[in-house]
Structure formats: structure tokens, C-alpha cells
Amino acid sequence: MKKILCILETPYRGTLEEQDDATLWFTHALKNAGGDMGILLRGNAVNYAVTAQDPAGVVIGKLSIERPVYPHKDLLKMKQAGIPVHVVREDVETRGISVNSLVTDFELVSAGDLPSLFAQYDQVWHW
Amino acid sequence: MAKTLTISIMEPPYESATSTTAMRIIDAALRKGINVNVFAYEGAVSLTVKDQKPHPNPVHGTSVEEEKHPNTKDLVASLFELAKEKGVKLEWINCGLCVDERGAGNWIDGPRRGGPPDFHKWVQESDATLVIPTK
Fold this sequence. Notes:
The complex is a heterodimer. By secondary structure, chain A is an alpha/beta fold. Helices cover 29% and strands 21% of the residues of chain A.
């Protein structure tokens, strides 16, 4: 079976309207379908690993978004389902995000080690 | 006399935070007693399609009821409700040519068909215009 790494660089694409991140959802769905999947968060998507994010409270007109997406919780479920979650360390640091604020279960990887990470997979999909 | 804000939106539903942000701006303006005109251009015409349906989430393991997912047509409908409650005017035009090329002509109550001349007229009559393009 082909081993596939999904790189997610742009976060929060329609997540309030969708109540999901489409890339995380699709990756998890492929895992559930029997796929061998991994996730790499880079660029602004490293914010998905921050534990303190809270999207609750959005009201539009007379409707509230009652089940907003918590990306770090979805990623934790993915990790528990056997999907490794990697986060580019430099992209965390350049945004002033403390490493201590991230979910500890995810693996921080240096940009210089990405070629080695890619070599562990048969295909790399950049979403 | 109430002020009027005209907004052009280009973003389709469910793809980015842009349409959500636009709806939040419309919401905020209506709550402040500002009349709002919305010109939905290109993919944004799909925001108000009546056939949108909420769905269960097999990855979350949740039912339709548990997901409590308001579609964008519901959010826009609720903006019309809010405008009525606040006694201000919300007008929504879907670009007719954009609708035709997408086959996206079955809408909720509220929007009407129009084109650039309508937007031009709104711009001339409004206190401010906000153009929110897709990226």
C-alpha cells in the first residue's frame, strides 16, 4: 500500500461554515478507508497545533455556529487513529508561537529534516 | 437618516474564511442600524442556493442532528431576519450571468437577479463600498 504524506499550509479555509477543515477531514476519511496517511503542518497551518484556540461564539444574524471546529482536537483524533502528525518547528518559531503551547503528541520536525521525512512516504500531497 | 453600505462578495461557500468574514461584517452593520446592499459575484452566488442540505459527519461519527450545521443559505436567511428585526434594509443581488453559468438559480427568499449596472447604482447611492474579492 502506498504511504502518503499530506502537507497542509493554509489553515481555516471555510472552517466556520464547514465545521471542519477539509484537508484534515479528507485525510482522516482516507485513513478510515484503509489508507496509510500522515500529516505535516507547515506555514500558517502550524497554528492548528495550538491547544488554546477557541472558535466558539460566532453568531451570524439569528444563527450561532454551535459546533465549530477545534483543529487540534481533530488532529489528536487523527493521531489516535494512527496518522502521524508532524509540525515544522521553524514555522512555529517564526510566528512567535511558543512550542509549549502546542499539543505535545505531535512531532516537531526541522525544515532541514523534511527531505528525510518525505523519503519515508511514497507520495507527498501539498494541499 | 440611516447610512448604507454596499458590499461585493466573490467567494463561494465553504472554501475560505472570506465569505464568513463578509457575513460577519453584514451582521455587524445591520446591528448598528446600517442598510446593507450585497452584490454576490461569481462563486458567491452559491451562498444562497436553496438546495443546500446539512449532512452527517462520518469522520466525527455524528448525525445530521448532532452536527447542527447551518448552511450558508441559512446564515444569509438569518441575516434577512435580523434586518427585519432591526428595521433596516438588506438587499441582495446575485449576478445573473454568474448564476446561469453555474446553474445556481434556485435561491432562498430574499435575493434577486441583477448585474453590474445594479452594483454601479448602489455604489453611487451608498456611503461606502467594500469589495471583497476571492484570492
